[in-house]
Amino acid sequence: MAVAVRVIPCLDVDAGRVVKGVNFTNLVDAGDPVELARAYGVESADELTFLDVTASSADRETTYEVVRRTAEQVFIPLTVGGGVRSPEDIDRLLRAGADKVSLNTAAIARPELLHESSQRFGAQCVVLSVDARRVPEGETPTPSGFEVTTHGGRKGTGICAVEWARRGERLGVGEILLNSMDADGTKTGFDLEMIRATRAEVRVPLIASGGAGAVEHFAPAVHAGADAVLAASVFHFGQLRISEVKEAMRAEGITVR
Amino acid sequence: MPRVVVLDYGSGNLRSAERALEHAGADVEVTSDHTAALEADGLVVPGVGAFSACMDGLLAAGGDKIIDRRLEGERPVLGICVGMQILFDRGVEHDVRADGVGRWPGAVERLRADILPHMGWNEVTAAPGSTLFAGMSAGTRFYFVHSFAVRNWEPDASETPSLVTWAEHGEPFVAAVESGPLAATQFHPEKSGEAGAQLLRNWLGEL
Q1: Under DSSP, is residue A162 helix (H, G, I), strand (E, B) or coil?
Q2: Is the domain covering A6-251 a CATH 3.40.50.1220 domain?
Q3: CATH dotted code for B3-204
Q4: Is the ipTM of this complex over 0.90?
Q5: In chain A, is it the N or the C terminus that has fewer CB atoms within a 10 Å radius of its CB?
Q6: Lowest-pLDDT range, A51-60, B17-26, B128-137?
Q7: Which positions in chain B have a beta carbon within 8 angstroms of at least one beta carbon in chain A?
Q8: Which of B54, B81, B118, B146 is catalytic?
Q9: Among this protein's residues, is B34 annotated catalytic?
Q10: Closest Cα of chain B to A124: distance in Å?
């Protein structure tokens, strides 16, 4: 008897519509988030993640509305991230019906935000989203060889990605969402080295993201230490079905729902 | 249609509980009003976050008295997640001890597991004769998210036997308890898809 490895579709939402592009640019419209969320619920997705990719203040209201409508219709956990800057933002998202909120850029700017949020809302609803890449050649290496990035992976920070995940854990986050910006959009598989390096240092659940392109890509991520696997466009465009991904994982001896 | 109050004492994803109960066939009101909470056919006590913070909120809202009065009259109460934990004697989180409502014996303690929180869909071993899990097949999974749990169930002989359902993450822990009108789950039925809806329907069916 063991907790099942979660398969999580991520919906990138811009002004109330689902979008996802290669390496976070060239956004392509791929549908209504509430419809997709409901379809994924039926298809045995274990959780849903919404990432608000533009987060301009005008579109922010649309996001709350999408969260509200989704939470009314889909009875599986919902994580929302993107542009979350303060405990007030978290409060609003939780009240709209989100179960967890992921923090990224704002936490890099002010790590105490993680502690404050965890204290106020509970560790179970605070996710630290880490957009990481290999430190490019010629730049100062980090201990793990991976660094945290901002701006959708375009800007390096020089912060060691694994150390940042550890710090997030110490500050009280309940989960780490590890996005490989090198693998994102490539559809050539998850960044197993990055997953292993992070798993070795953190004891909270780890969601692997970035690079999924085929059903056989998921089991290696779990064997590398992921507790959950996340993908976006391969699900939205119907290239992969959640049931097929789970079947492939089960065949590799992984417990799935 | 059974009338259910979701107790609003400042904790929990109240909206999810409200909508899932409606979806399962209840007429739901989210409120901290004592009269409404006492008169409803069923009372749901949600709860997330720290045990001591939840307990503080419950006491401030007079929720402990509502629970006591309802149970005196054999009126159903369902606790969810930390809303279940606070029904026990006490909680111990980060060396902070806090008294619970004390309906059930024992302590809520940190689970001994490699990965915490215990987050995701897990199986339960339903108590024989359970109402909540009636009609469900073995291996049905529910959504859990918690780091603390009741690891030992030690009722004293004088107490009415309870139906105890177990789950495992690193070690066995109490996943649900049913004692007459008082029932509770450590997992989130309102987030457990069709399995959770079935459990809520089973509970509503008894109201």
Answers
A1: helix
A2: no
A3: 3.40.50.880
A4: yes
A5: N
A6: A51-60
A7: 13, 15-16, 19-20, 23, 48-50, 114-123, 125, 141, 143-147, 167-169, 188, 190-193, 196-197
A8: B81
A9: no
A10: 6
